Amino acid sequence: GKNGTGRAVLAAGKHTGDAAEISLGPFDEARVEGLFALQAAKIEMRFSAFPSPELINSYRDSNGNPGVPPCKRCLRDGRECILGSSNRGGRRIRKNKMKNFTPETTLSGRRESIVESISSTASDNRQSTNTSYPGPVVFVPPEPPAATSISVDDEDTASIGSVPRNPSDAWQCLTGIAKRGDDGPTPETNTDSLRTTHSTFSFSALQNGTVTDFQPNSGIKAYRLVQSRSLDPGTVWQLVVRYAENFHPYLPLVPRKYFNRGALDSFATNEKHLLTAVLTIASKDLVERPEIHEYCSKYMHELISGIAAGADCDVEAVEALLLLAEWEPQGLRPRIERVGRGEEDRAAWMHVGLALRSGYFLGLDRTSFRGDPSGDTETEARRRLAWTSCYISDRLISVRIGRAFWSRGPGPMTGLVSQDFPSLQPIKDGDEDYARIFQATLDLTQLYGNVHDVLYSGMRTSNQMMLMGDYVKYVDDFRLAILRWKSLWGSLPCSTPIQATLQLSYEYLRLYTNAFAFQAAISQSMVSKLKNDQSQREHLRSTFKDVASMQDARFIYESVDAAKAYLTILVDLVHPEKHLHFMPLRFYLYGIYAAVFLYKARSFGVMPSSEETKVRDLVTRTTDVLKRASAGLDDIGSRYSRLLELLWKPKAATIASPAGTHQSSDFQVQSNAIPHRLPEQKADRSVPLGLFSDPLEYYARDEGAPHNLFLSYLYCFLPKPGDTYLDIVNNMERQNDITGRLALITGASGGIGAACARQLAAKGVHLALTYSTNVSSTTALAEELKSKHSDSYNLRISVHKVDVSSADEIQRMFEEIDQQHGKRPDILVSNAGYGKRIPQIWDIPLEEFDYTINVNLRASFILVKGVVEHMKSQRWGRIVFMSSIAGQGGGINGCHYAASKGGMTGMMKNLSTRLAEYNISVNDVAPAMIGETGMIPSATAIPEVAAGIPLGRLGLPDEVANVVTMLVTTGYMTGQSLLLGGGLK
């Protein structure tokens, strides 16, 4: 109540006597009075539940015998008197207090009177003061839903015959008990929801002093990317439409209702994982707006991390992971290699595995069998479709990378047909029948899985099958099953791109099946090889020159035919920009597999020369199609087409074998972007090398190790343990061929740098030349080299002004190189240097020491940082530092110069050991007394020193360039400091 001073006095605690006075404004006084009224209403409701004394007396016995019916009230009312049973010793079910409380009749009236009272009080207070305050707001909770009848006894009865099987069952039991103990809020708890402060709501909701419902952001406005203003709702919808038109037909997992603009709010609220996956995929090729894909990818990465960490999710999260596994947007990977190395398969493997684990946890595997659905029909159908897609993705990715299946339980191949997927059924005439397309894919996937399980089950089993010939009956049976699928589904009416995907999948399965027999023929041939001077390759070529006479001729011919058929469909029936651009990535990788398979078949002499020419043209068209289907250089088509071009690129010269046998140019393939270092192999090589290269050949050498069929073909032309001398020589030729490489030469305006530029240009190396001040000499050098080699090489030569002591200028130089050459350098010649002759340390200023270190040592470090990632990605690189004899013997210039050059040699030795595994060689040249340079312009500059050189003369820049050229063309040399000093030590 209020005291005489107009202050509100509140009781502190339950007992009166202690009081606390607080100063309240008019607005707060109105709120206090309203809360008092609420408390009074609550007390009134609480005490109204107790019976009156008269009612209690009426329950007393009527005949003097306590506990024996009838009672007085029943006699008075003429009713039958029956005593209730006792619950003593049993479990008492606590009923929800709110079930007997009717909001419409009891609380509603009181709430209205309370609101009116508060409003009138606040109105009076506003009239009594000159200051205007917004009126109080009472949050009115929504009407509680009708209570559903839950039989607790039924739950107990259902579990009475079982015990928990695992900790998960135990905590679920405890969760059920907790829910039964807290069926709903009590009246006391419910009234707390009426107490809220005005600071929770916006000012507009308080202006009139009326009851206002608070409406926070919801729907698409509450979606993370929209709420953070990364995207706007219009952009989100455009991406959804783009996905529906271009990507959805290849894996129709997104419910079609979400392709209606009116359902965007529901999509964002209920399906955040799925919506984000849709946005990430739809934005992956928007080269003009890369920031959109970056925003979507970061949020998607966060959501995936949450799933992996155990965050709550539903079937839509499983669908999102499956979609990502089909397309693997580049934004989800930490970095993109310029040359494909199968990283998409690794990411897809992990996403499919996470989807399967989540699906098992959600119980999606139970939808494999028809039965009473656990929920509504639509939800059950969606769960079944998601789990079936998990099965398909699991089989296809496992076949693609040669690993065991994630899913080992009963799959969806238990009689599921197109009718089991109602969400894929056409709605009106002319709609795509995705249900039948999905069933066709499901049937073909079963064949993929069977071939993988039977033929490619493991190293020992498959090896024994090859050598014993047991595979023939299996391959024949699979061929017939594949033909039956073709007769059943080959004429399925569907759109052109979907029909193309079915045909491509069919042809790849033919290739996958018959390639096993091809490898078996190779293995059998190598086992029967006599011990003579004939090399393995010579023996294989002589064996396969007459394929028609071989036992497995039908399999070999069909495998080659399947590979050619796949590429023919890819280049003739699939539009690169309109269709292939949007297809799942597996169709790109299947094409790479087919092209490399044809290369190996050609290498063994399976094809006649006329067919060989046609195949080469087919592969050339394939690489062109892959490039056209790519949105940029980092897209999957461009990245893997480069490997195909390197593989099929002809060599101008051949090397004769020691026995005089002509060697085909097939074995002299450029492998600039291919790994040089391969995993170590076991000594056991009971199955000799054949079609599949070791260690990525068809079998893994280690027991139980997986085989990656795509990579095994892709890297099949690499050097490997057991190759002949000729094989090693041919590979050395490829590794040391620097034609077409890009070299960065610092300090190229004259002297040693200019000499290096001339020699490398003569070998067809593109150049990036730097200078500090002498622009005219550097520009003249570039023009000289372009005109001199215009007939033999179309050289790209760029000129850059750089102060190598500045990290910012070096970074700018690399940006210019990226723009003008489209890549980072493959060869680094760190030649720019500085040295001022100050013999005594007490004469060397600190600034001079720092500048010398920056130019000679720090700059080389920064330059290596700028090129090493590119060299690592392509598994090839050459780094040459220009050190000095001063780094080894002290020199005559002073300790500051000796320290900078000695540091270069130390850095070189460290880098050579760290980078060798990436096929990057690091060396330095330590010249001494070289004339025609900035340090020593001529022999007359320091006559007394020149006279002391054992050879009696100064060195020439071309002689230093000779050593540099030798180092960049000799990949086997690394970690060496070559002193070039005319006999000086």
UniProtKB/TrEMBL annotation:
Family annotation (PROSITE patterns): ADH_SHORT
Source superkingdom: Eukaryota
Gene3D superfamilies, alphabetized: NAD(P)-binding Rossmann-like Domain
GO biological process, one term: DNA-templated transcription
Keywords: NADP, Nucleus, Oxidoreductase, Transcription, Transcription regulation
Region (Disordered): 115-137
Boundaries of every Xylanolytic transcriptional activator regulatory domain copy: 348-432
Pfam families: adh_short (PF00106), Fungal_trans (PF04082)
Biased composition (Polar residues): 116-133
GO cellular component: nucleus
Single Gene Ontology MF annotation: oxidoreductase activity
The keyword Protein biosynthesis belongs to this UniProt entry's keyword annotation: no
Protein family per UniProt: Belongs to the short-chain dehydrogenases/reductases (SDR) family.
Name this polypeptide is given: Xylanolytic transcriptional activator regulatory domain-containing protein
Organism whose genome encodes this protein: Aspergillus nomiae NRRL (strain ATCC 15546 / NRRL 13137 / CBS 260.88 / M93)
